[in-house]
Each structure stands twice: as structure tokens, then as C-alpha cells.
Specification:
disordered C terminus; mainly alpha; Arc Repressor Mutant, subunit A; 8 helices
């Protein structure tokens, strides 16, 4: 892992530990983008294949979100993908599983406003980029990942 990847992983870890839930769709997309799952849609497909079709359906559909346990996530996804996700997030596997079990149902519900998954967090909250620059609700604990990592000039 290069220096920039290490710094970004550190920023993701900080955001996950602070549990800025408004940032979870973006963080989840970034973490999954660095795995073999193929993004949030790939994660949901893997969960369905792993026996969690009813839970995933409830997160995407109308009504209450069915809960999921860390053990169910581990069983459905396997240690390989989860270990890569934990490494990308910079968290111990058990802590990542606890965070996912607690927040994944609502995060997926937020990412599917009309029952269809919107993988681009900017499409859900178009002001997120502007808010991140200003430290608003779309940020990750007070600034973008690049800002948290000290690279606030990247892409400008």
C-alpha cells in the first residue's frame, strides 16, 4: 500500500470510528471500490448469494429494514472479502463487522431512495462535495478524505 493509500485508509478509519453516518454511503463505496466485490451492488449480490436475500430486499424496499448480525455478514461474505474490506478501512475485522451490522441496513436504505440502488453518493446528496469542502453534513468528520489526509489540493 502506497503512502497516499495509507493516508486515505487512515482517514476512512477515523471517519468509521467517529461514525459520521451521513458519510457512510461514500465511505462504503470507496472501501468496496478497492475490493473484488464490484461496489455496493456487488456487495448486495454477495449478501443475497450468502442467504441474506430477505434482509437485502427489506433494505431496498419500503418499510422496516431487517436487521443483520455480524455472524450473518461473516457467513454470507466469507473472511476473504471481509478481510480486504477491513484492511481498506484500517479496522480490525470484528469492529468492521459490528459497524456494518449496525449501519448497513440504514445505509443501503438511504442509497436506494426509490427502491433502486444509487451507487454514487453524490446522486443522493448533490451538495455533499460542497458541504465536505465547508465541513457540512456531507463531510467525513470535518472535511473530505483528501483534506483529512492532508492532500486538500488534489484534483483542484
Amino acid at each position: 500500500m502506497g503512502l497516499l493509500d495509507s493516508l486515505i485508509a487512515g482517514a476512512m478509519k477515523s471517519a468509521l470510528q467517529q461514525l459520521d453516518t451521513s458519510a457512510l454511503p461514500s465511505i462504503l463505496s470507496q472501501i468496496l471500490g478497492r475490493t473484488d466485490l464490484g461496489g455496493v451492488g456487488g456487495l448486495l449480490d454477495a449478501l443475497r448469494r450468502g442467504g441474506l436475500d430477505q434482509q437485502v430486499g427489506s433494505w431496498l424496499g419500503q418499510g422496516a429494514n431487517a436487521p443483520v448480525s455480524p455472524d450473518q455478514l461473516r457467513s454470507a461474505l466469507g473472511n476473504g472479502d471481509l478481510s480486504r474490506m477491513a484492511q481498506e478501512a484500517g479496522l480490525p475485522l470484528d469492529q468492521l463487522l459490528a459497524i456494518l451490522a449496525q449501519h448497513l441496513p440504514q445505509t443501503i436504505d438511504t442509497m436506494s431512495p426509490n427502491g433502486h440502488l444509487v451507487e454514487d453518493p453524490m446522486a443522493i446528496n448533490p451538495g455533499a462535495d460542497r458541504e465536505a469542502d465547508q465541513g457540512g453534513p456531507g463531510d467525513i468528520g470535518g472535511g473530505s478524505l483528501a483534506q483529512k489526509a492532508g492532500f486538500d489540493d488534489i484534483g483542484r
